[in-house]
C-alpha cells in the first residue's frame, strides 16, 4: 500500500483503510478534532477504540472504547493541532496497550491498556466539530519500525514489534499471573516473574511478586510499585553472564527509558534473593528494585533469546 493522502470534511464520518501492523504514522492539518478509529472491520461497530486529537476546541486529547464515556484516557493538549500546518503523530497498539505520540518524540503523550485484547484490522480517520482535515498517512511497515516523516526508529513506549515478534507480553494487574508466565527469580521460595510497566514516560522491566499484589520497577533511585503491568510469557530464552554495557546481540529488548534508550532484562543475587530488574546499557549496570531502593550492579545475568 502506498502513502494515503485524503481530505476529510466536517462530518464525523470515518474513512477506513486496512492496517493490522500495530503501528500508524501520519500527519494531519486541522484546526481541531482529528479523530481516528481502530476497529476489527471497516465500519463503526463494537468493539472499537477511538483516539481524538485536539478535541474540545483543540484543548485536550482522549482515548475512548466503544463510544462510551467516561473516556479511558484524557490529557490536556492545548494547541496540538493547527489549521494552517501539518502536525505529525504516531499511534501504536500492542498487547492491549494503545499509545499516542508526536512526531520526533519517543515517549507517548497518552496511553492506555485494555485487558480485553481486540485484534485491530482497520484504521479510520475523520474530522468534525467545525474542522476539515488534510491527511498524509504512511503505509504499514511490516512491524512498524518507524522511519519516514522523521519518526524515531522505536517511536513509542513499546519496543518495535519486529524485534518482539516471537515474544508475548500479557497484561496483568493486582498480582495476577497469566498462564505460562516466565519465572526469572525467587524470594523466600516465592517465584518472581519478569514484567515491564509504564512509568514516567518509559517502559521499564522489573519483577512481579504475586503475593504483594503489584510489580516493582527500578527508576529514579527507588523501588516503584505499579499495579498494572505486562508479564513475559511463552518465552524459551535463557540467562547468560554479562557485565557493564556489553549487551549481547540476542538480548531481549524489553522496554525503553523515558529518553528512548533500549532496556533489557537482568537479574542478580542480592540478600539471598534472585531478583529481576533492568539493564541500562548507557549506565553500564543492572538495576534491581529491592527494599524500597533502586540498586545497581555492574555484573549480572541478562536474558537472551
Q: Which percent range fits the helix content?
A: under 10%
Terminus-to-terminus distance: 32 Å
Mean pLDDT equals: 87
Shape: elongated
Count of helices? 1
Beta-strand content estimate = over 45%
SSE order, one letter for each helix or strand: EEEEEHEEEEEEEEEEEEEEEEEEEEE
For the record, what CATH class of the largest domain applies?
Answer: Mainly Beta
Radius of gyration based on Cα positions: 20 Å
**Overall SS class:** mainly beta
Under the CATH scheme, the architecture of the largest domain is Sandwich
Biggest sheet, in brief? Answer: 7 strands, antiparallel
- Point out poorly predicted stretches: 142-166
Number of strands: 26
Briefly note the CATH topology name of the largest domain.
Jelly Rolls
Number of domains: 2
Domain Farnesoic acid O-methyl transferase: 12-139
InterPro entries: DM9_repeat, Methyltransf_FA
Pfam families: DM9, Methyltransf_FA
Protein name: Farnesoic acid O-methyl transferase domain-containing protein
Amino acid at each position: 500500500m502506498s502513502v494515503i493522502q485524503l481530505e476529510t470534511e466536517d462530518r464525523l464520518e470515518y474513512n477506513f483503510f486496512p492496517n493490522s501492523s500495530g503501528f500508524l504514522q501520519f500527519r494531519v492539518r486541522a484546526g481541531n478534532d482529528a479523530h481516528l478509529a481502530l476497529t476489527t472491520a471497516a465500519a463503526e461497530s463494537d468493539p472499537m477504540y477511538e483516539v481524538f486529537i485536539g478535541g474540545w476546541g483543540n484543548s485536550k486529547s482522549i482515548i475512548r472504547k466503544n463510544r462510551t464515556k467516561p473516556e479511558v484516557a484524557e490529557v490536556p493538549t492545548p494547541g496540538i493541532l493547527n489549521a494552517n500546518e501539518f502536525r505529525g503523530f504516531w499511534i501504536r497498539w500492542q498487547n492491549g496497550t494503545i499509545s499516542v505520540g508526536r512526531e520526533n518524540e519517543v515517549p507517548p503523550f497518552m496511553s492506555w491498556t485494555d485487558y480485553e485484547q481486540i485484534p485491530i484490522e482497520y484504521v479510520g480517520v475523520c474530522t468534525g466539530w467545525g474542522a476539515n482535515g488534510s491527511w498524509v498517512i504512511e503505509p504499514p511497515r511490516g512491524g512498524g519500525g518507524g522511519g519516514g516523516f522523521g519518526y524515531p526508529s522505536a517511536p513509542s513506549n513499546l519496543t518495535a514489534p519486529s524485534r518482539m515478534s516471537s515474544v508475548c507480553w500479557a497484561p496483568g494487574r493486582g498480582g495476577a499471573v497469566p498462564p505460562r508466565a516466565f519465572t526469572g527469580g525467587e524470594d523466600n521460595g516465592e517465584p518472581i516473574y519478569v514484567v515491564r510497566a509504564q512509568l514516567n514516560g518509559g517502559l521499564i522491566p522489573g519483577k512481579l511478586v504475586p503475593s504483594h499484589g503489584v510489580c516493582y520497577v527500578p527508576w529514579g533511585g527507588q523501588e516503584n510499585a505499579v499495579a498494572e503491568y505486562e508479564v513475559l510469557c511463552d518465552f524459551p530464552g535463557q540467562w547468560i553472564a554479562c557485565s557493564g554495557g556489553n549487551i549481547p546481540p540476542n538480548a531481549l529488548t524489553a522496554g525503553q527509558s523515558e529518553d528512548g534508550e533500549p532496556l533489557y532484562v537482568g537479574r542478580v543475587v542480592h540478600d539471598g534473593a534472585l531478583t529481576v530488574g533492568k539493564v541500562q546499557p548507557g549506565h553500564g549496570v543492572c538495576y534491581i528494585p529491592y527494599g524500597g531502593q533502586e540498586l545497581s550492579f555492574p555484573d549480572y545475568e541478562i536474558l537472551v533469546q
